[in-house]
Fold:
Amino acid sequence: MPSTTRTGTLAPGTDARGTLAPGTDARGVSATGNGSTGTAATGLEETGATSTSAEILELLLPHCRTTDSAPARIAAFPHHLRRIDGFVRAREPVVFTLPGFPCKSPNPAKVLGPLPDQGERLSLGFLDALCADIARIHAPGARVVICSDGHVFGDLIRVPDAHIDAYADELRRLIGALSLGHLSVFDLRDVLGAMPHEAKRAHVHRRYAPSLEELRTQVRSADHTLPLYRGITRFLVEDTAEFTGTRSALQRECRRRAYGVIQRSRAWGELIAACHPRAVRLSIHPQPYGTPKFGIRLLDAPDAWTTPWHSAALRRTDGTWTLLPRARAERLGRLVHREGRPSHFEESDPRPG
Structure:
């Protein structure tokens, strides 16, 4: 799904800050649904949901990140429809929780540095604009709680806790500076305060994490846990910038750590559910239809697993954006700085001068 978000010369869909204008999605086009048959034949009878709830869900469908090949239809998401409907009937803002935005990858070949940059800026703008679109359908509006999970597994991904704090603090600053009033950031500091980071991780793991044997059984059964396990293993291999052993030894170590990351991620999800029990759960990972999580694509990328914190943003010559590893984006364009820090790349025009 190619991106058509535009900044720089202020093409449709952005403002002077380089963020998304209300009524547009991450592609810079009007978020009006996926061309399905409106609210007819959407499964409303089965869920008892209102047509307003179906319209809200339909706004999400063009951005669905899934492992399924069939087109996204409202009827495939009864769980999310019921959750949305609870807020609609109560005349309250729809609350979405989105685990993610943990920290930047420690591999300098993938990212521009340890702090959020244009990839995060565009993603935050997309989420805020999506909430603004919901407000046109449902007057109380919507909000997204970004559940920054870096501290949950910082030891496993080998990122210092100080870097994770700085990343989350910069997310909060960006949200304020860009007036993204529909967004907030939630992390372990909001739950466990000033407790040492290792103690926080141990507490969350002990209370909420599934057993290692349970996870191994799920991976062996080849359900949706298997592609997640493989995807996280791949990220861990790519993010390990310094390793003195063999490639096979690195892969074995990353497979072991991948189980730990999934355990902690599941634990974080349980803690979020305890703190936000009515919220609609979003995910930055691809999700099969019918599960409690709705996978959401933040920006255009070559594959369904790429995120702003594992890549750099590249603005193509036609004004569209994509996410690429820094080393690849660097070969395609020039580095642009913003507020004194590396921000993104601008693709070089291949046409002769």
Summary: Residues 219 and 225 are 5 Å apart (CA to CA). Confidence is low (pLDDT under 50) at residues 1-41. The beta strands are 94-100, 142-148, 183-186, 280-283, 294-295, 312-315, 321-324, 333-338, 341-347.
